[in-house]
């Protein structure tokens, strides 16, 4: 059961603060899922030339750089979204 199914204040409507917290949680989860999908799809396709039992040095470096770029980009977007005046 989610936080909106059982209101604690006796009201049938969630408070604005509860709604914003739920929204932030959902956005964070969506960003994490998108990040993992991006890394899995794009970085693997770009960096893994010969799938095998282990990564070569160049594949490992490529994956590391690719992940670092996406972490940086995700951080920039997150800061821009969540630092706006409320």
TrEMBL record:
GO terms for cellular component: mitochondrial inner membrane; mitochondrial intermembrane space chaperone complex. It is a peripheral membrane protein. Keywords: Chaperone, Disulfide bond, Membrane, Metal-binding, Mitochondrion, Mitochondrion inner membrane, Protein transport, Translocation, Transport, Zinc. It comes from the Eukaryota. SUPFAM superfamilies: Tim10-like. Gene3D superfamilies: Mitochondrial import inner membrane translocase subunit tim13 like domains. GO terms for biological process: protein insertion into mitochondrial inner membrane; protein transport. It is found in: Mitochondrion inner membrane; Mitochondrion intermembrane space. The keyword Cytoplasm does not apply. Transmembrane segments: none annotated. GO terms for molecular function: metal ion binding. Residues 22-81 form the Tim10-like domain. The twin CX3C motif contains 4 conserved Cys residues that form 2 disulfide bonds in the mitochondrial intermembrane space. Heterohexamer; composed of 3 copies of TIM8 and 3 copies of TIM13, named soluble 70 kDa complex. Associates with the TIM22 complex, whose core is composed of TIM22. Mitochondrial intermembrane chaperone that participates in the import and insertion of some multi-pass transmembrane proteins into the mitochondrial inner membrane. Also required for the transfer of beta-barrel precursors from the TOM complex to the sorting and assembly machinery (SAM complex) of the outer membrane. Acts as a chaperone-like protein that protects the hydrophobic precursors from aggregation and guide them through the mitochondrial intermembrane space. Belongs to the small Tim family. This is Mitochondrial import inner membrane translocase subunit. The gene is LOC104593239.
